[in-house]
Amino acid sequence: MLSNLKGVFGALDGEEGGASYATLKTELERVKTDKDQLEARVQEKTQHLENLEEVSNSLQEQLKKEGDAKTNLEELLYEEKNKGQRLQTELDVSEQVQRDFVKLSQTLQVQLERIRQAESLENVRVILNDTKLTDINQLPET
């Protein structure tokens, strides 16, 4: 472009000054038009870039919020799993206590019936001495 302008200025020094001036003016208008178009494109691209940056920032914020929500849900899930395990353990213990209580109750009812049917105090002592109530696992199945 600079060489074109030099050529145009060089032509002004010659005989055809009027024609060269018109050529220079046309070239200048073309350069201005190109410059205006380039500036408009730069402005358009700058605006597009700003829009993309806004979208990127918005998406980053949303990603952070979603990440925080995921972390909270994972913590809640962990707590609920622990709670479920704890409740299952409590249920297992409760069921075992209930089974032990039934076993003890049945054993005591059998022993009580044997005591009622005993014919002497000596037989009652034997029944009581045979009953081991210190460990539920030592009780006979009824």
Protein described:
The chain is an all-alpha fold. It has one domain. It has 3 helices and no strands. Helix 1 packs antiparallel against helix 2. The longest helix has 101 residues. The termini are far apart. The mean pLDDT is 87.
Brief descriptors of the model:
142 residues, 3 helices, mainly alpha
Summarize the structure.
By secondary structure, the protein is mostly helical. Helix content is 86%, strand content 0%. Residues 21-76 form a coiled coil.
Q: Helix count? A: 3
Gross morphology is rod-shaped
Separation, N- and C-terminal Cα atoms: 112 Å
Order of helices and strands: HHH
Q: Give the helix/strand class.
A: mainly alpha
Strand content: under 5%
Number of strands: 0
Q: Helicity, in percent?
A: over 70%
Query: Quick check: average pLDDT?
Result: 87
Number of domains: 1
- What are the low-pLDDT stretches, counting only 5+ consecutive residues below 50? none
Q: In this structure, how is the largest beta sheet organized? A: none
Q: Say what oligomer this is.
A: single chain
Radius of gyration: 51 Å
InterPro entries: Rabaptin, Rabaptin_Rab5-bd_dom
Domain Rabaptin GTPase-Rab5 binding: 19-119
Organism: Scyliorhinus torazame (Cloudy catshark)
Pfam family, one: Rab5-bind
Blueprint of the fold:
Elements: H1 2-12, H2 17-117, H3 121-130
Helix pairs in contact: 1-2
